[in-house]
Amino acid sequence: MQIPVSFSFDVSIVIVSFNTRDLLRECLLSVFRTVASLRIQVIVVDNASTDGSAAMVGQEFPDAVLIQSKVNLGFGRANNLGFESARGRYVVLLNSDAFLMAGSLERSVAHMDANPQAGIAGGRLVGPDGSLQPSGRMFPTVLNDLIVLSGLAARFPRSRFFGRFDRTWADERKPAKVDWVPGAYSIIRAEALADVGPFDPRFFLYYEEVDLCRRVKQRGYSVWYWPDVTVVHIGGQSSRQVPSLEISRAGAQLTLWRMRSMLLYYRKHHGLGARFAMLMELLWHWLQSRRRQLSRDPERRIMARADRLLVSMMGRAWRDTRGGRLSPAQPW
Question: For the CA atoms of the chain, what is the radius of gyration?
Fold first, then answer.
């Protein structure tokens, strides 16, 4: 991304959509309702949707810049396409299933203006029912992954040790420097983005924002969580969590994508750590399958089959990525 000599907008909002027409409409309405005095540029990147999303944007939101991809580029590459058209001092990433609350955009810009070392920041993500979603997180490590996978993070959320990955121990009402913020909503300084470069295109889905935040911090910028910036996010269900019964075909596909991206991330930033991350998760699911298979409870035996499938998928992800060294041909 090239830094313009002068910025035409305060904020360029990039929204990537894939078959989310109705949600996208509500998302765009929330954006235009919260503009206030800001000069904004809205960029919608349609990832080869088949539900009429692009036509809806063209007809109902003519002021938005519409970019139509002929193939599904995934999250990172589609946002990179949007970055090329961005002309704002700040770039906001907004999921099509996320909706801005009044004042959120203005407060985001004010915080970034007041904190020149802030490279990326996120807000307080809540579900439609007001429940808090993970909004400021620690970088993945093998230990952090094990704590989450084992269920200890969910069992002891107020513990600074077990609740470390999602910072569930912290006061959600206080701003904080964090390792990374989710891509459902984040605001990025244009200079920081130009400095570190766009999303790594090897990540089709998952871990791309983790990688970007890590590179931003490595360049000396800070990453912030601001609780007075509220965004309603319909998503937020992590594919890390092992399903209670059978894994659906769509769920299995997303889990495989998550495993591939995890291996790419660990290889890129931790080298041989990719092997340890793979072995940890593979061994965990294998042990769970053995334990559950011994149960007389039919549901636990179904869960054992799901565990065996996860073991198989981790092996496939390792082979697909050659141990995290190669991203398979996209779209995945």
Answer: 20
